[in-house]
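User: Structure please.
Assistant: Input sequence and predicted structure:
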Amino acid sequence: MATAPVIPARIDYRHLVQDGRLHGSLYTDPAIFAQEMETIFHRGWSFVAHDSEIPNRGDFVVRRVGTQSLIALRGKDAEVSVFYNRCPHRGATLCQTPSGNRPRITCPYHAWTFALDGRLIGLPDEGAYPPDFSKADAGLTPVARMDSYGGFIFVNLVPNQLTLREHLGHATELIDALLGLSPTGRIQLTAGWMKHKMRSNWKMIVENQVDGYHAPMVHGSLIAANRTFATVRDRKPTSPTRVRDFGMGHTDIDHASDYRAAGDRLFRWTGGIEPERLPVYVKAMNDAYGPEDARRRLIEGPPHSMLFPNISLAEMNIMVIEPIGPDASIQYTTPVFLEGADDLNARTLRRCEGAMGPAGFLIADDAEIGELTQMGVANLEPEWIILSRGLGKEEVLPNGVKLAGLMDETSQRGFWSHYREVMAASQEIVH
């Protein structure tokens, strides 16, 4: 029978994560993985759901954050709550399906029944319990803190002093850029989620999401098949595209500079579609933002970013990473539908399927390279992993954001430097 890993009293993360290299055990050690779940996913802020997934009273989704199964649901007052997916009676899992709609939550074991606000409202033979039993004290347990930005709902299971806005920092600019492609400023994540098991550590997926270095080697089939990907995102060292470190572990690949440099009328982020083919969408954007600002938004397109620790705004896709072990993760993907852009959304769905579906151009390549990397780091030697491309050459903006070349590893170092501070702080005893 499996047992919980024995966690050492102290792991020296400042030694394991250095400015230009990483220790291989960061991807393989069960004790490190266990500490990450507690320190990063339970004590920090993690994405759990988007409010468009639960638009109606009684709608719910079940998500896993760290080791915890959670229920995000919309109550009768239209407010969203997030509860632990556990009956307070004998501990049974309450919701077994990933999503649905219920007028109330009923435990499958002993039929304890809960209102959508978590109150215990019914149980068989209530009189059999002692006189001091109170239904008011036996409701569902909410998470410690929940907050949202732009419809993206985040949770903090073990309270810390950091607010969600402080956690997001400059990354709010990335969310705003995505929302700003909708004439109404709202998006819809309603297409359902594709689910892929990745035989790699969750941090490898984070790194890969904002890696501008690997595309010519790993995604050759896509480059051969897609003219826009091949010509605009050519991954040459001279490309105007930059990688950015926003701080707090949030990073991105800024394709907007490439799109602006292209200097034509094509919306490159849609696959090179001409504005005339999206008349309803273009008119709605012009009406909402004015022709000049609308044109800027439509040329620059969406972000290609990774928000610490578990959500990627991957242009017109949203990806969520669920760690399940040191050498395994689940990646969830859904297309981004823009409210007020029906003529674009159908195309977005097909592009998501083509890139991230079971036979997609991108997902299979990235899954394979992740598995090969996980197999490689299981070897004892070489002990250290090199992460120094572009080190010391970054441009630092007045707001602290770092810019570097497309193929530099600044985005990965941005993630790891924040990881080091968070994990090291959890090990340091304040006297």
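The first strand starts at residue 17 and ends at 18.
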